Task: structure prediction
Amino acid sequence: MQKLVECVPNFSEGRKVSVINKIAASAKKVSGVRVLDTEWDKSHNRSLVTIVGSPREVLSAAFEMIKIATKLIDMRKHKGEHPRIGATDVVPFIPISGITVKDCVVLSIKLAERIAKELRIPVYLYEAAAKRADRVNLADVRRGEYEGLSKEIGSNPDRKPDFGPNKMHPTAGAVVVGARKYLIAYNLNLDTKDVGIAKRIAAKIREKGGGLPGVKVLGFEVGGFAQVSMNLVDFEKTNFDEAFREVEKEAKKLNVGIRSSEIYGMIPLEALVRSVKKTFKAVDFNSDQVLEKRLYE
Amino acid sequence: MQKLVECVPNFSEGRKVSVINKIAASAKKVSGVRVLDTEWDKSHNRSLVTIVGSPREVLSAAFEMIKIATKLIDMRKHKGEHPRIGATDVVPFIPISGITVKDCVVLSIKLAERIAKELRIPVYLYEAAAKRADRVNLADVRRGEYEGLSKEIGSNPDRKPDFGPNKMHPTAGAVVVGARKYLIAYNLNLDTKDVGIAKRIAAKIREKGGGLPGVKVLGFEVGGFAQVSMNLVDFEKTNFDEAFREVEKEAKKLNVGIRSSEIYGMIPLEALVRSVKKTFKAVDFNSDQVLEKRLYE
Result:
């Protein structure tokens, strides 16, 4: 099975399209890397580039982008609504196929070492790559943002970076690098207008309330109907088909049905294959049987 | 959406691996064509090469293979258990994505014209490409095999080819070219040893008995358990998820459950996507949302 990893670096530039294009272009130059998406938001003054490929090439492309962003973005002048601590703000590695989160932690560390050594930028590791419990959550690492961290780094031992100098890079600030699982955004539209029912179901199935592992969920009203809106942060534990069945079961108890469901954004083939395997008891089914998969191997 | 077509030419050589390799190699030379599989059987004395790619390139690669097979295989000396009428025996085009069976009929005709003109081999069109009702079934086109057709062609108007000379090619015989939908082989293992139950369910759901459209099905005993074994010849009409639910429903009436199911061989991504869309009411879901699909576009 070909090893595939996704990387979605976030940059503190959402207004100058020429800068964003230069950053994305540097990833495209690395052969074997596919740039799947480039997005930016003016009010956030932030952009993100989604790349996919083999681990070695994705690592290399991520570094090239960070190098260009370091040259072109000056944090001393940066203003935007979204929290950030650096020109390259955060760089998550996400396993897609044939690779684990642990492998992505190794990639994070390799990238952190390169950033520290070649670009002289302080690096913090977060999520699965975190070396300290207080750095698992991105919000904790970014506390105080660029301005606040600039004051604390070097003096507060809790803000000492995991790699690189114990002071901000003059223009690029600091970087957060890490690894996490693929997140599937999945919404279920109920056949009721009563948003209270969506909220009750959400309370029942969310991981924090003792529900399904890896499920973050809220009840909303969307287009006049109640919606159970989920982030499945670990589809190997709870995939969309399992979430569907659980919500359907809870809804039934309240005499409500499911009108439709919505897989939002991209989904890895592996999640589809797992859903088919489980739902139809296709015990030996695997993604190598999917014809299109053979085309990029 | 990228247009993808599959082609699986069958050649009357299953013993000389060097010949089979030369045929497959000629397809590999065509850029943009992927050779997914090469199989052969000694007792059938027959091989088949599975290629996938864009319509233009697959057409070109199919022709290259046929040209080589015409040079290297002599039907006057050919012996094998499997019915055949030529060095290249049959060439089906199968839509995978972004392309219809009608488009594949057009490809069949283009290939037939080239074979007739450049190689001077008589060509019969079959299945969806058939121009006559008595040529829809491959068995009818191949009646009498190479030896029988050699005697009838030129004199029996029912055996007049659709393209090319009204006589056999001296060494390569004749070719059958056509278009058909992708066939999904799908088995359901019941939790009973009573093969009679599998046969009863088969009788109920097969298309011929007024059951599900595009479903060919038999009841078997496999490994001591009853199995409902299906060929889904048109997954846009009846996909594996629908077949599963229907068999499950019929089995339940007989107090029997489904132990497991088995998708045999390759399956197009589109079939997976359709099963998810239907089973989980994911009305807007489409294959462009599958991350891996983006990698070969």
Residues 9 and 91 of chain A are 4 Å apart (CA to CA). The mean pLDDT of chain A is 96. The first helix of chain A runs from residue 17 to 28. Chain A is about 35% helix and 25% strand.
